[in-house]
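Sample entry (69 residues):
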Amino acid sequence: MTVGEMLQYTNRFKEIMNGPNSLRDSRLVILMSDLEQAYNIPTLRDQEFEKQNPYLMQLYRTVSEARSI
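Predicted structure, serialized as tokens:
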């Protein structure tokens, strides 16, 4: 993940969090799915992948924890 990509996804996350509550969870799920597809995030926890992609995984967890599901 490049710095520019990280900034784009972070800004998208901030926009979602500042948007209407009624759409928040569904938009966060879509953001998580986009991250999974773009960076091939494994379905099951993979410590080696996480070690190689710490910033990506921190963003992914932040998005996940923001959901109310």
